[in-house]
Amino acid sequence: MPKVLISVFDKTGIEDFAKGLVALGWEVISTGGTLKALQEAGVNAVSISEVTNFPEIMDGRVKTLHPNVHAGLLADRDVSEHMQTLKEQKIEPIDMVVVNLYPFQEVVSKPEVLEEDAIENIDIGGPTMLRSAAKNHKHVVVVTDPDDYDQILEQLKNGGVSQETKRILMTKVFQTTAEYDTAIAKYFGNSDDLTLNFKKLYNLRYGENPHQKAAFFKDPAVLETSIAKAEILHGKQLSYNNIVDADGALNLIKEFDEPAAAVIKHTNPAGCAIAKNINEAYRKAFQADSKSAFGGIAVMNRPCTKEIAEMINDVFMEVVLAPDFEPSALETLKQKKNIRLIKLGKIEKVKTLKDYRKVVGGILEQDIDRAQINKDTLKVVSQKQPNKKELKQAIFAWKVAKHVKSNAIVLVKGDVTVGVGAGQMSRVDAVEMAVKKAGAKVDGCVVASDAFFPFRDSIDELAKAGITCIIQPGGSIKDEEVIAAANERGMSMIFTGQRAFKH
């Protein structure tokens, strides 16, 4: 009778899997909480203590670290000396291991986690069994992912698990343990070396252009809301550019607690708005630059309603991102075959997160920009003080400007962007572009700039257009000249003291 050793923290699907194995004639050996769950589910499982002839001790820290377990896993069935040793030592071979690990990454991602909690979630026996079984994968099936249960049962019903599948499962084990050890080292250490582990989600049709091969990989260590964790409800597979744009859209919408929506084109917001309800926010965001919105990505931080779905269906949109979709909204949007509908789930973010960018021959690491401003952190440097309405608009404009490619200029009025100048080589060019985009709506706008103004020329242009208030980082050697220009023009100027470049 073949034997399987099951010891899992994540018990998703394990009862049905174990029952399937028993039905195929397997003997189930198990440990601790897994044993209890299986027995309560009616699975005839035996305790690991019956295999080791030794009790589980030290609150379960020591239960599988025993020769009767690891010899049973590591014995090469093709080597007669190994099999003779098992016979002499009265050790039974173990033919399958089903193990997943203590959730170290999840535990240490929680705010204010205690070091003793982190230590208790370092799995020792699990990785050891996985590695033993993976080394001997020619003879032992090693399972660490619940998504593989059905495939394994199906192959067993049809003659046995193939060597190709065993090899794939073995590779998954070493990827899992490498990722796990890296997470532990990163949490406790201050190493100057960087090790990253990513899990491939799927190949893409191509990259930015058809002649470029591409694929999408997931970082399992990132627990906050992301495109890699989102659920595609409808439409064809995301493209490389869709994913890049969708990531930019999601990062922007994470700035807001109130109902907010945006339309993204080439990672820049064509329009962004906040409002009392999500329908109004989306309508304003779309109308901010409806011409540029064509072929864009719609994003919102509240469930997509039927009213929004009907507005989206009137134009061509590549992707719609929302925490969820009302059933009537889904029905409406699914009328278009190729539109991608992405369910984000609850939008969550952590205070600290690393951002990486690959360059030829190296990789750049930085903290993701989670810096926030509020009325207490700002400094008014002009003679004219911004009124309450202007201050609110300035803070909104700044949040959007953080997600516009530099040089970035954002004009806002009434909680909506009316003109965006993005990615220009000079700041005054960005000003001119934003003013042109705003058109007749420019008078009385508040403007945000992601970096300081190096000369007064931009201030003069903004004043001529009718801008009343400017928010910018400050820090130029020409600050006095720029402030003087604002004073001459009767404008209020606010310094944030922080820059918001996005390259």
TrEMBL record:
The record's listing under Gene3D superfamilies reads: 3.40.140.20, Methylglyoxal synthase-like domain
Q: What name appears for this protein in its UniProt entry?
A: Bifunctional purine biosynthesis protein PurH
Please list the GO terms describing molecular function. Answer: IMP cyclohydrolase activity; phosphoribosylaminoimidazolecarboxamide formyltransferase activity
PANTHER family the UniProt entry points to: BIFUNCTIONAL PURINE BIOSYNTHESIS PROTEIN ATIC (PTHR11692:SF0), BIFUNCTIONAL PURINE BIOSYNTHESIS PROTEIN PURH (PTHR11692)
| Pfam families, sorted | AICARFT_IMPCHas, MGS
Is the keyword Transferase assigned to this protein? yes
The terms describing its cellular component in GO are: cytosol
Q: What is its EC number?
A: 2.1.2.3, 3.5.4.10
**Pathway connected to this protein:** Purine metabolism; IMP biosynthesis via de novo pathway; 5-formamido-1-(5-phospho-D-ribosyl)imidazole-4-carboxamide from 5-amino-1-(5-phospho-D-ribosyl)imidazole-4-carboxamide (10-formyl THF route): step 1/1; Purine metabolism; IMP biosynthesis via de novo pathway; IMP from 5-formamido-1-(5-phospho-D-ribosyl)imidazole-4-carboxamide: step 1/1
SUPFAM superfamilies according to UniProt = Cytidine deaminase-like, Methylglyoxal synthase-like
Q: Does the keyword Transferase apply?
A: yes
Which keywords describe this protein according to UniProt? Hydrolase, Multifunctional enzyme, Purine biosynthesis, Transferase
